[in-house]
Amino acid sequence: MRKQSLIAVARHLMAHAATAASGRSAETVYGGHEQTLRQTVIALMGGQSMGEHGSPGEATVYVLRGRLRVSSGDASWDAMTGDLLVLPRTRHRLDALEDCAMLLTVAKT
Questions:
Q1: Number of structural domains in the chain
Q2: Residue 44: which region, alpha, beta or left (left: phi > 0; alpha: psi -120 to 50)?
């Protein structure tokens, strides 16, 4: 059993993202390339994006802090602190509407 504060991880990553040229920072908190399940905390400063990309499997985003938008084709979904989004299996992008931190969970197929 292992316990970790995602709020503390998010706080640390937000501080790092604020000084990073890319305006983002991430840390895998569970899993990895050799496992099916991977969970990553991602911090994005307001106005930054994760450009259009595909998903290697089923994926969700849980917003730990802030607001973001997920877009796929002509559709978009806004989320804020406490919201859980099931990401589309199609190509999509994430945009930080304000400074935000999220938990990305991916179950690779």
A1: 1
A2: beta
